[in-house]
Design brief:
The complex is a heterodimer. Chain A has helices at residues 12-17, 21-38, 45-70, 78-94, 100-123, 129-148, 162-165, 173-191, 193-203, 205-210, 215-241, 252-262, 274-293, 298-323, and strands spanning 167-168, 171-172. Chain A is mostly helical. Chain A has a single domain (18-28, 45-317), classed as ABC transporter involved in vitamin B12 uptake, BtuC (Orthogonal Bundle). The chains are: A mainly alpha, B alpha/beta.
């Protein structure tokens, strides 16, 4: 490996956004400016707040996925567990009449439990993360349909709708939750052992073990953490719809992984920043929002998102090859 | 001199290969012992067993004269045995002080919440590197951006600053240029001056003779002999390593 010259210090931009931060920011900026010019309704408070509400679930799950991918893992099952947790939560409050807070907590914990299963499959059975969570993705989707009998679950109490539809002042509740999660996890990433070990394990598992890190434990924790956050996003989703759909969260994993990767987190692990993920999420959100505003058919959204994922991963792969 | 680390009749088999055949080793306090031997002689297997990274089939390990249960890297660390592996053990995308303190981070407390104390770790890292004469401009630099010599020096410093007694170095100069190798050897001597006992594995006899107090030669998983530096020379050690072929031809 050739040694690059020592840099004086990390710039604040790379500290917050990661090494690819500037590139992500430029993309974000151009899309933002383009939409502001192309659509008169884009740059309005109403639309921007709506956009933030739209991306809040995506962001909450992406926070977990950022940590997980940095640690060298990945979770394809989050779209399905998003549906399962929403269904579980809605069933508890709508059918069993449990208090809303208990239902919400149960939904979140259910997500954590599913994450635990993923983590144990990867660390104890030693399945490749891609395949273990692919299996879970399919199985859990079936599970969501089995639990509901294929029907949408209606009849949730009004109090349940607050977490997805409510406002504090002019700010939607999901946006507040998203911001709180973001701030808390910025702290976790930078200032806790858990955050540091994600980088260590994803950067070099063997070296981490030699340094005395319990890499399996922290890998499991990364999956559980993702599961808990996905559980929260599932609860918010079902609250927002006022109903739990067994086919909720379709392609959710693709949106989340795309946002994380275009945010500069290395798909090979060891590198990434939450600030970059926030930009990635906003880029995905603006693409969806912009295409709606510009009246472009939603089929094109999928094409655009898929291509963006390929370009982002492709750019990183080429960069890594150059460095080796 | 007190013996700080002792291996007694260690054996290890990989399938049909007898990697170590009842091998013994003694490391005295405040000495540098060079463990030398040809490729495949069993040097790496032996130190991995001492470090808890590989399990022995039979034999005993004693630390400070007491039988030691070394079954994992953490066991070895807790007994004060630190290893710097050939392929380093640094994490490329962590910075210098994060690498130095990885696994033993310093925390401060915000109320009940433990928080990584970056400033303190950076400060102590600077002091430790300074002590050993390791020069790195910026401790917030990713180690992937440093030179091979700097990386090796940091790896040695990491082992030294926590290994209270015993540091094992696996080919610390293998990938380095002449000047960088000299610097790392200087750091190794510095370790000894600071009170550590060191086992160094190397193929480079010049480097071994520059720092070692004693030599232990192993071949085909068994001990060929042990020599003090003052009582031997490069020729004899090479002859022991190769089984005398070179010398026979030479004479």
């Amino acid at each position: 490996m050739s040694a690059a010259p020592e840099k004086e210090s990390e710039s604040w931009i790379s500290r917050f956004l990661g090494v690819q931060g500037l590139a992500t920011f430029v993309v974000f900026f151009f899309i933002f400016v383009f939409l502001s010019i192309a659509s008169p309704s884009f740059l309005t408070a109403e639309n921007l707040i709506g956009l933030l509400r739209q991306v809040s679930m995506l962001m909450i799950a992406s926070v977990g996925m950022t940590f997980l991918i940095i640690a060298g893992g990945i979770d394809l099952s989050i779209g399905s567990s998003n549906a399962v947790t929403g269904v579980v939560c809605a069933l508890l409050v709508a059918r069993l009449g449990l208090p809303v807070s208990v239902g919400i907590l149960a939904g979140i914990l259910c997500g954590g439990a599913l994450g635990l299963v993923n983590g144990l499959m990867v660390t104890q059975v030693r399945l490749p993360p891609l395949l273990a969570t692919l299996g879970m993705m399919v199985a859990l989707r079936g599970g969501a349909f089995l639990i509901t009998g294929g029907h949408t679950i209606y009849g949730v109490p009004t109090a349940y709708l607050w977490i997805g539809r409510g406002y504090v002042g002019f700010i939607p509740v999901p946006v507040l939750i998203m911001l709180a999660i973001f701030v808390v996890y910025l702290f976790v990433q930078r200032r806790t052992r858990f955050g540091l070990y994600m980088y260590a394990i994803g950067g070099d598992r063997v070296a981490s073990r030699r340094a005395g890190i319990n890499d399996r434990l922290f890998t499991v924790l990364a999956y559980v953490n993702t599961g808990l956050l996905v559980g929260l996003s599932g609860v918010i989703a079902s609250s927002r719809f006022g109903a739990a759909l067994p086919n909720a969260g379709l392609n959710f994993e693709m949106d989340v992984i795309t946002a994380v990767v275009i945010g500069g987190t290395s798909i090979f692990g060891g590198l990434g920043r939450l600030g970059g993920t926030l930009l990635g999420v906003l880029i995905i959100g603006m693409i969806t929002n912009g295409m709606l505003l510009l009246d472009i058919h939603s089929y094109w959204q999928q094409v655009a998102k898929g291509l963006i994922l390929i370009i982002a991963v492709g750019a990183e792969t080429i960069k890594q090859k150059k460095e080796d | 001199m007190a013996i700080v680390l002792e291996a007694r009749e260690i054996s290890k088999r990989y399938g049909r290969v007898q990697a170590l055949d009842s091998i013994s080793l003694q490391l005295e306090e405040r000495e540098i012992l060079a463990l030398v031997g040809d490729n495949g002689a069993g040097k790496s297997t032996l130190i991995k067993i001492l470090a808890g990274a590989v399990r022995r089939d039979s034999g005993e390990i004693l630390v400070d004269g007491r039988p030691a249960q070394i079954e994992s890297p953490m066991d070895a660390k807790n007994l004060g045995v630190e290893v710097v592996y050939q392929d380093l053990a640094l994490i490329n995308f962590l910075n210098v002080y994060q690498n130095l303190f990885l696994g033993r981070e310093i925390h401060k407390h915000w109320g009940p919440i433990p928080v990584l104390d970056h400033k303190e770790m950076e400060r102590q890292s600077a002091a430790k590197l300074e002590q050993l004469g390791v020069r790195v401009k910026n401790l917030r630099t990713w180690v992937s951006r440093l030179s091979g010599g700097q990386r090796q020096s940091i790896a040695v410093a990491k082992a030294a600053s926590f290994g209270r007694k015993i540091v094992i170095l696996d080919e610390p100069t293998a990938a380095l240029g002449v000047r960088e190798a000299q610097h790392v050897l200087q750091i190794v001597k510095e370790l000894k001056n600071k009170g550590a006992s060191v086992i160094i594995i190397t193929h480079n006899m010049e480097h071994a003779f520059a720092v070692a107090d004693r030599f232990q030669v192993i071949r085909l998983g068994a001990v060929v002999g042990v020599r003090k530096r003052t009582e031997t020379g490069i020729d004899e050690i090479v002859k022991m390593i190769t089984g005398g072929v070179f010398v026979a031809n030479g004479n």
